[in-house]
Amino acid sequence: MKTILRRMLGAARLRADTYEEVEADRSSIGPAFVIVLIAAVASGAGTALRYAGSPLSAVDVGVETTISALLPLMLWFAGSAFAFMTGASFFRGPETETDFAEVLRTSGYAFTPGGLLVVQGLRPEALGIVGAWLVWLWIVAAGLVAIRQALDFSTLRAAGTFGSAAVLLWLLVWGLGVAPLPLP
Measured between alpha carbons, how far is 123 from 50 in angstroms, rounded to an integer? Predict the structure, then answer.
């Protein structure tokens, strides 16, 4: 337990050595998943708090809360997959030596600040929105460090990998959103 908390603190502080330690430790995939689950619960709770007492129906609040809770899990897995594919292929450096599990472990720890996503439920609503944006920016910064360390290359290559993975993820979500449903 002490190791996980120490690593979470190091990950939140954007310490490269912490991400290197997580990258090398094959057993850290479980704690990485738990960290993303914590972010998911915090995100869902923050959304539920934001809409508490709103004129939205219970079904609408439930849908919003569910989507918000699933978002960190989807971003972690799909984002890691796209980061691995683009980073290990197109942005590959001379020292890049990695596998998908390394990217998954380090990017899972990058979600450590996500435990604070409950702030999106703060009142006034503008404060909650600003707080959530700041937490997401922190997660993005941690994600850049995680990708850089997992793929063993420069910050510039990490930014290119992160950006291309984000575009691919956006295209996937957009494509699913506009794709026609099959008719019976």
Answer: 8
pTM attached to this predicted model? 0.90
Beta carbons within 10 angstroms of residue 134's beta carbon: 13
Q: Is 31 exposed, middle or buried (0-12, 13-18, 19+ CB in 10 A)?
A: buried
**What does the block give as tokens for 155?**
């910050």
Integer angstrom CA distances of residue 74 from 6, 117, 121, 169: 25, 16, 21, 10
Contact indicator for 128, 46 with CB cutoff of 8 Å: yes
Query: Cβ neighbours of residue 41 under 8 Å, at least 6 residues apart?
Result: 69
What is the separation, in whole angstroms, between the first and last Cα of the chain? Answer: 51
Does the structure show a pLDDT above 90 at 54? no
Rounded to whole angstroms, the Cα distance separating 166 from 146 reads 15
Count other C-beta atoms under 10 Å from residue 65's C-beta: 19
Two structure tokens written together for 62: 């439930």
Q: How far is CA 81 from CA 4, 36, 99, 112, 170, in A?
A: 23, 15, 10, 19, 13
Integer Cα distance of 49 and 12 in angstroms:
24
**Dihedral class, residue 14 (left if φ above 0, else alpha if ψ from -120 to 50, else beta):** left
Q: What is the pLDDT of residues 149-164, one digit of tens each?
A: 999 989 999 999 999 9
